[in-house]
What we know:
Elements: E1 2-7, E2 13-18, E3 27-32, H1 38-45, E4 53-55, E5 57-58, E6 61-62, E7 74-77, H2 90-100, H3 105-118, H4 134-146, E8 152-156, H5 164-181, E9 184-189, H6 192-198, E10 201-206, E11 209-214, H7 216-219, H8 223-228, H9 235-247, H10 258-269
Parallel strand pairs: 3-9, 3-10, 7-8, 8-9
Antiparallel strand pairs: 1-2, 1-4, 5-6, 10-11
The site of adenosine-5'-triphosphate (ATP) has 13 residues, from helix 1.
Amino acid sequence: MDCASHRYPDGSMGIHDMCFYIKPAEIVAICGANGSGKSTLLEHLNGLLLPTSGHVYVMGRPFREKKDTIWRQVGLVFQRPEDQLFAPTVLDDVMFGPINLGMSKEEAREVAISALEHVGVSDLVDKMPNYLSGGQKRLVAIAGVLAMRPKIICMDEPTSDLDEVHSRRIVDIIEEMRRFHGISVVISTHDLNLASRIADRVCIVREGSIIADGQPRDVFYDRELIEYAGLSLPAVVELYYAYCERMGLRPDRRPLTVEELLDALTARTCPSFI
Ligand SMILES: Nc1ncnc2c1ncn2[C@@H]1O[C@H](COP(=O)(O)OP(=O)(O)OP(=O)(O)O)[C@@H](O)[C@H]1O
């Protein structure tokens, strides 16, 4: 995405001069407060929206018109799975994308069942999407995108309405997609705990622009930046800062996981016996 801007018909600015890229098999988290432009960015990556100015390229090819077929390479899991699920049964729903891509009914059925198995909900094939729980809808929506075998998957707030168990399942699925299928994943979120757990790279957005792009360990230890973006520090970073402040220590270790936090704290409090 090269200097792309999008103005909605009512004059609202969705994104402004935004430059964004993702590499093969990379996981990038787009982090920003409500209304900062995360969904607008994601909807440009699969051609649901076209930029008012600037360009979007997928696999090096420019996206010019809505009828371009580059969307086949980029799947989008919507923020509200209800916006994605519409067929009478879960299986029909997940088969819809593959059939649209030109697969036969048998082929589509096969890839749909395999995608449902992949996300762990193959027991739901005959259920009506409407009657599923929020977490189940989310998993079925992911299966629907996976069944289309895209090169890039964009997930808009993938864990926003999920409990800890379902959130962990989504994190595992994202990691598996990258590791076993080489898929690149873009997630949008305002949950920096999620982003710090999963992302190789993070982009911080504010008022439609990317204001920082870097490694989670660098970006999430910039307290001023995170506050400016209207976000809260990841819990591990917050705890580490609080601990260092109380102990009068310089916060020079930058832990991101609980394991790293424990290492950093015990290194400080338990002097070596050697
Ligand atoms: N269809 C639309 N028509 C007009 N303005 C819109 C439309 N969709 C989004 N916007 C505006 O564009 C800006 C960016 O919205 P967007 O939905 O991309 O933000 P977001 O970061 O995804 O927010 P959230 O976290 O609340 O979902 C906001 O000011 C919003 O009001």
